[in-house]
Amino acid sequence: MPAPLAVPVAPVAPAAPAAPRPEAASDLGPLVRKRVADEVLITDWRTVSDTTHHVTAHWPQHHSFYTPRSGRYSPLLLVETVRQALALLSNAAYEVPLEYKLGWEYCSCTLTPAMLDIRPDDHGAEVELTITHALPAARRKGGSVRLEAQITAVRDGQLLGAAHLRYTCHAPAIYERLRGQYADARAATSHAPLPGTPVPPAHVGRTSDKDVVLCPTTAPRRWQLRVDTAHPVLFDHAHDHLPGMVLLEAAGQAAHCLAGPDPTTPVTLRTHFSRYTELDAPCWIEATPLQWPQPDLARTTITGTQNEQVTFTTHVITRR
Fold first, then answer.
1. Which of 85, 101, 207, 284 is most open to solvent, judged by the fewest CB atoms within 10 Å of its CB?
2. Predicted confidence (pLDDT) per residue in 9-53, tens digit
3. Are strands 265-273 and 309-319 parallel, antiparallel or unpaired?
4. Domain boundary residue, one of 153, 177, 201
5. Are residues 229 and 172 located together in one domain of the fold?
6. Predicted structure pTM score
7. What proportion of the chain, given as a percentage, has pLDDT over 90?
8. Is pLDDT above 50 for 56?
9. How many C-beta neighbours within 10 Å does residue 206 have?
10. Cβ within 8 Å of residue 26, ≥6 positions away
11. Distance of CA 152 to the CA centre of its chain
């Protein structure tokens, strides 16, 4: 994830009229940065104005990672849907070239009870996103692009949640300067160590070792991030650093570990990404003592530290 930028950044030009959209998930895959067609959630989009777009997503009846228990969708399925939608719009609506590298600076997501209670029908669930970007201006050719978006998600007229993201799109030459030796995704992925021993899945709201992203330590409220680059969802293609979705999953699992043993669900995640979290060094996940502002609500702050530097901070509220 991107550190504070020391390169010239200019916003993107206003949205052009919607181009013809590919019908197959395999065609949309590059636009949403997914290699495996089954992981593509976006099905359609249309322009409302220069700054507002509607995006349609289909959530499958069962997802191998984002329906972890009781058939209910994980809150992070909504975040992944937003991630895919913004990747799509950066190119299709705002003409950011596909070779640009996208990264988050800030991500906030708040869920409603409707999201926590949602269950798929026989065909899954259709979700409508309304995405409004801050009014952009013309950008310099070959420069980076900084964007900011507000998102609401609705299913069958019910509000599921809202999100706010700030993200940056870097031209290849700028990205290579920023990342230096880490710019090659395949090389960086190959340098990741084998995943360590996971926390027991039940402690983090999971049923399988492979879906656990935390390793235990001897210190209270402290874990080592467990990185499995063979995970078919979190790493469906090579990355030059740890994806934001892995870090958000780690924050949610850490909060669940503290608030358990009863099942809990993150209802608010507010994350600042301050540095890239690299694949070749341990990242330590630490939590503040749990607070209970209400009997069914718990909150904590999760921090990721690598090489003695904070890489991300997430404020989490969970609900029993």
1. 207
2. 444 444 444 444 444 555 889 999 999 999 999 999 999 998 999
3. antiparallel
4. 177
5. no
6. 0.91
7. 77
8. yes
9. 23
10. 37, 40
11. 16
Residue 215, strand partner residues: 224
Q: Is residue 184 part of a domain?
A: no
Q: Taking the C-alpha atoms of 65, 71, 74 and 75 in order, what is their torsion angle to the nearest 10 degrees?
A: 160
Q: Which of 192, 171, 312, 186 is nearest to 239 (CA)?
A: 186
Tokens of 318: 């969970």
CATH number at residue 124: 3.10.129.10
Amino acid 66: pLDDT = 92
Q: In terms of domains, do 44 and 141 share one?
A: yes
- CA dist 268 and 123 (Å) reads 28
Structurally, the chain folds into a number of domains equal to 2
| Alpha-carbon torsion (60, 66, 68, 73), positive or negative | negative
Percent of the chain predicted with pLDDT > 70: 89
- The 3 state secondary structure assigned to 233-274 is CCCCCCCCCCCHHHHHHHHHHHHHHHHCCCCCEEEEEEEEEC
Residue-wise pLDDT tens digits, 152-208: 999 999 999 999 999 999 999 999 999 999 999 999 999 999 999 999 999 998 999
Domain membership of residue 20 (yes or no) is no
Q: Is 162 exposed, middle or buried (0-12, 13-18, 19+ CB in 10 A)?
A: middle
β-pairing, 125-133 vs 52-59, is antiparallel
Give residue-wise pLDDT tens across range 116-163. 888 777 788 999 999 999 965 556 677 888 999 999 999 999 999 999
